[in-house]
Design goal:
Helix content: 10-25%
Number of helices: 6
Radius of gyration: 19 Å
Structural class: alpha+beta
Number of strands: 11
Distance between the termini: 39 Å
Largest sheet: 11 strands, mixed
Strand content: 25-35%
Order of helices and strands: EEHHEEEEHHHEHEEEE
């Protein structure tokens, strides 16, 4: 069953549970001018922001939205994501996002998405992998402990409803010693975790990682292919004021660009991503 649930911002933190784990909810978003690029197509990071909002609303509709999570001092953290689009919607189009929770597997909570336009045509899919973490330490919370917090019985959450393969594990292109040595090379890009990048979990929001990856793809010009897909692993949090160095590598045969984000102050790779391109016609 699919439940069509309108989005009202003023009610988003006070939604009462109306769905069960595994039930699909549908949420609609209009593409604003500020969401789009120089060709009036939605940026991938703006699209992923909509996916994130749909997940948040669906979580609230199930019974573990932000308000409930805050009461138990826990939060959702995104570990991996895969998004594949047949096209990127344009300015003033509407995107209908269908999403559902797939229960849990070990420490992980998979979530799936289907995206359609207003004509009902499917234009994309996404698959994500999350954990529940302690809000103070960001250490993982076991699913059983999480469900016990909510006083849920096994029948309410024990299911397997995974539609596609889980997002792949991505290995960084180089080791940290190479990145540390070459962080000032001419073909690297520097970003900073400024005030506007930080979210309610006190780290750089995952959508900003995507935006940085797009900057890396289009490092040399505005027209370096149409990004229609991304696989990304979030490996380490990025905190306020930290410097992040982006390394990129092109695989033209497979129309892919690999981007790694390296944090020199901690000598850690914060994320690894593969962006899938189609050459512009």
């Amino acid at each position: 069953m699919i439940h069509d649930l309108s989005f009202h911002a003023e009610k988003s933190r006070k939604r009462r549970p109306i769905l069960k784990v595994g039930e699909h909810g549908r949420y609609s978003y209009d593409v604003m001018g500020t969401d789009t690029d120089h060709k009036d197509q939605i940026h991938m990071h703006a699209l992923i922001s909509m996916l994130q909002e749909a997940a948040s609303l669906n979580g609230a509709d199930i019974g573990f939205g932000a308000e409930v999570m805050d009461q138990h001092n826990v939060c959702w953290l995104l570990l991996r994501m895969s998004v594949q689009m047949s096209r990127r919607p344009a300015w003033q189009e509407r995107i209908n996002i269908e999403t559902w929770s797939c229960g849990y597997d070990k420490l992980f909570f998979p979530r799936e998405y289907i995206m359609c336009d207003d004509d009902g045509e499917q234009i994309g899919t996404a698959s994500t992998l999350w954990i529940v973490a302690d809000k103070s330490t960001h250490r993982p919370v076991r699913p059983m402990d999480f469900y016990n917090m909510l006083s849920w019985t096994k029948e309410k959450y024990d299911l397997r409803n995974i539609m596609t393969e889980l997002p792949p594990k991505i290995c960084p292109m180089m080791d940290v010693s190479y990145m540390d040595l070459h962080q000032n090379d001419a073909d690297t890009i520097c970003k900073y975790a400024d005030y506007s990048e930080i979210d309610r979990n006190l780290h750089v929001n995952n959508t900003r990682y995507i935006a940085w990856c797009l900057d890396a793809v289009h490092f040399q010009s505005l027209d370096q292919g149409n990004v229609l897909g991304i696989d990304i692993n979030f490996l380490s949090e990025i905190h306020f004021a930290e410097k992040v160095v982006l390394f990129r590598s092109c695989d033209r045969d497979n129309c892919q660009i690999h981007v790694d984000g390296y944090v020199p102050s901690r000598k850690k790779v914060a994320f690894s991503a593969i962006l899938h391109l189609r050459e512009d016609e």
